[in-house]
TrEMBL record:
<dbReference type="GO" id="GO:0005829">
    <property type="term" value="C:cytosol"/>
</dbReference>
<dbReference type="GO" id="GO:0047617">
    <property type="term" value="F:fatty acyl-CoA hydrolase activity"/>
</dbReference>
<dbReference type="InterPro" id="IPR049449">
    <property type="entry name" value="TesB_ACOT8-like_N"/>
</dbReference>
<comment type="subunit">
    <text>Homotetramer.</text>
</comment>
<dbReference type="GO" id="GO:0009062">
    <property type="term" value="P:fatty acid catabolic process"/>
</dbReference>
<feature type="domain" description="Acyl-CoA thioesterase 2 C-terminal">
    <location>
        <begin position="147"/>
        <end position="281"/>
    </location>
</feature>
<dbReference type="InterPro" id="IPR029069">
    <property type="entry name" value="HotDog_dom_sf"/>
</dbReference>
<dbReference type="InterPro" id="IPR003703">
    <property type="entry name" value="Acyl_CoA_thio"/>
</dbReference>
<dbReference type="InterPro" id="IPR025652">
    <property type="entry name" value="TesB_C"/>
</dbReference>
<dbReference type="Pfam" id="PF02551">
    <property type="entry name" value="Acyl_CoA_thio"/>
</dbReference>
<dbReference type="InterPro" id="IPR042171">
    <property type="entry name" value="Acyl-CoA_hotdog"/>
</dbReference>
<keyword id="KW-0443">Lipid metabolism</keyword>
<comment type="similarity">
    <text>Belongs to the C/M/P thioester hydrolase family.</text>
</comment>
<keyword id="KW-0378">Hydrolase</keyword>
<dbReference type="GO" id="GO:0006637">
    <property type="term" value="P:acyl-CoA metabolic process"/>
</dbReference>
<feature type="domain" description="Acyl-CoA thioesterase-like N-terminal HotDog">
    <location>
        <begin position="30"/>
        <end position="107"/>
    </location>
</feature>
<dbReference type="Pfam" id="PF13622">
    <property type="entry name" value="4HBT_3"/>
</dbReference>
Length: 290
């Protein structure tokens, strides 16, 4: 695996401290606070260590911003081990307080009724520019003080369907779509459904919350905006692979009360494999002038 993929696998591989107690390391991925996708992925991985079944749903709340300079402790409460479903509660703890809480449900695959909406008709990923290529075209818009962090390569590969300039946002329809995968194949030693689901949880947080900003002509870089993830839900419908192209199609239905509600659907090989829901804080604030 290349370096970025290996680093991602290591980030989502936790150290067992005691029964139902795990430690995950933090990385500076988006700024001063821990990236929400990191906590989602690590929490799901912690819960997965306590069962041999794949996850089918995760419901989480972000309570406090995480410290990128400190590890995170994940405490798993084994609420139920039933014949059909396994239920776990996970608390992420840092500096003595709970910064994140999630309920995770696991179930063995079984046959049943099948139906899905039609997959959106977008260009194939091979026809699109990578996010790294698109960033090079924006270099003249990037302020010097954020250039290093903005240009830094992500641990996943993203190919936007309709690229936008976050430094000059314009009012647009509340939709978003990109293809996403790890830079390299997951090595055989780590090729487990639990890791693939944790990586998908990690990258499910990219751009989802900001979809509701688009009708307002705002982006996550707008200086007048305070934005943060409040909650996050993931439903896993079918087996998936995080190292193969997945279309992440998103839309937002409402912004009200300084919050925006966003929905996402992940498609792979023509199948709807995952759905997400997230509400995010979208608070306008006054800009201090000298």
């Amino acid at each position: 695996m290349n370096t970025l993929t290996q680093e991602l696998v290591e980030l989502l591989s936790l150290e067992k401290l005691e029964e139902n107690l795990y430690r995950g390391m933090s990385r500076n991925l988006v700024g001063k606070r821990v990236f929400g996708g990191q906590v989602l992925g690590q929490a799901l991985r912690a819960a997965s260590y306590t069962t041999d079944r794949p996850a089918h749903s995760l419901h989480a709340y972000f309570l406090y911003g995480g410290d990128v300079n400190a590890p995170i402790i994940y405490e798993v409460d084994p609420l139920r081990d039933g014949k059909s479903f396994v239920s776990r509660q996970v608390r992420a703890i840092q500096h003595g307080r709970t910064i994140f809480s999630a309920m995770v449900s696991f179930a063995s695959p079984e046959e049943g009724l099948n139906y899905q909406n039609d997959m959106p008709d977008y260009p194939a990923p091979e026809q699109l520019k990578s996010e790294a290529e698109l960033k090079l075209g924006l270099i003249d818009f990037v302020p010097e003080n954020v250039r290093a962090s903005f240009m830094r390569e992500r641990h996943i590969e993203i190919r936007p369907v309709e690229p936008v300039n976050p430094f000059q946002p314009q009012p647009q329809a509340p939709t978003n779509a990109h293809y996403i995968r790890t830079h390299d194949k997951i090595g055989k030693a780590f090729d487990q459904i639990a890791l693939h689901q944790s990586i998908v949880a990690f990258y499910s947080d990219f751009t989802l919350m900001t979809t509701a900003l688009k009708p307002h002509g705002l982006s996550y870089l707008s200086p007048s905006l305070q934005c943060a993830s409040i909650d996050h839900t993931i439903y896993f419908h079918r087996p998936l692979r995080a190292d193969e192209w997945m279309l992440y199609d998103m839309d937002a239905t409402v912004s009200a009360g300084s919050r925006g509600l966003n929905f996402g659907r992940m498609w792979q090989n023509g199948l709807l494999v995952c759905s997400t829901v997230q509400e995010g804080l979208m608070r306008l604030r006054e800009i201090e002038t000298q």
